[in-house]
């Protein structure tokens, strides 16, 4: 009897173990944590330093999103070479001296569209700016959050554990203030590094046009915002939709009065539950499964009044499922409504995706998707290529496209319009088999 064969192979030379990569060093404040500026004399002192400093100014703002109804800034952070970092509490301060000190400087912001509205609300407006998030997008960085860009471009890790705190809290805890100060600590270095990348990629002029356009950014007014109520698709009938609208509007008014986020009064789920059940009195409302929240009982009379108002509306005054818009229909409906326009859109989308890949940037940064759809749904009338190109140029410019975007995408859109008008080749007839 032979011994059983051991299936385990003889140990060979061990493969070298790759050493784990050293984690990036944690970003810290090089000058320590400055005191909060919350008096006019302290603000005046920093403004003198700021005006005497050199180079661009890194700016950030903290809001109380998720806690407050308003979008106001509860803390403004600034840093400039020669002036250091400042943490300014804008509540109750006249910010005119700060705007004067910032005159003629370039602001560095990350995700400028988030901060510009609340900074404008306190009287701060840029003469020039550089948006590090947008620069990252134009350069094709796959992730453009501030912490990610700081780590990948500059090699530092950032603390992000206080990003969702209530910045309306007073006094602000020191760890929160340190987190806020770190947001502007290396923005100038990040701007310099990304600026070099833009130059090397031939995209510096694109970025300049984008940043200049951003200076005048204003949030798009919300139209029919109640239609974004989570779970509204479960509501049936126009009267149910009317209930969502009235309950949402009532909640929004209460939230604005109290300056709290609407979801802290009643959640969207409660609005949907009441719109499904359509209770007729307070007892039935409070007994509705799913109707809950801090303000469910406290404001029960207002909810009942809103539901009674809906019950008394004429059918013609109730909202429809799909509101009429001023733009083209949803793309999925194009093939049925206008097959030629649908062909244009297919051709253009394929070409735009290829163009975006060629230039290493997201397709939505190549051209705002709504601009593309509007131009293709109602294109210029001319089909003479040169004239059509001129008219497409004018249409895109009127919509707000920047010159670099028009130059790159205009030929793609012209080609899609001309090719979309052509009848597609007929499918070959099937030959019946014997």
Structural class: alpha/beta
Topology order in helix (H) and strand (E) letters:
EHEEEHEHEHHHHHHHHHHHHHHHH
Q: Output the CATH homologous superfamily of the largest domain.
A: Ribonuclease H-like superfamily/Ribonuclease H
**Cα Rg:** 29 Å
CATH top-level class of the largest domain: Alpha Beta
Mean pLDDT: 93
Quaternary state, please? Answer: single chain
* Low-confidence residue ranges: 1-9
Relative helix content: 40-55%
Strand order of the largest sheet: 1-4-3-2-5-6
Q: What overall geometry do the principal axes of the alpha carbons give?
A: flat
Could you tell me the strand content as a percent range? 5-15%
Count of individual helical segments:
19
Overall number of domains: 3
Q: Give the biggest beta sheet.
A: 6 strands, mixed
CATH architecture grouping of the largest domain: 2-Layer Sandwich
Pfam families: DNA_pol_A_exo1, DNA_pol_A_exoN, HRDC
Protein name: Ribonuclease D
Organism: Nocardioides lianchengensis
GO molecular function: 3'-5' exonuclease activity; nucleic acid binding; nucleotide binding
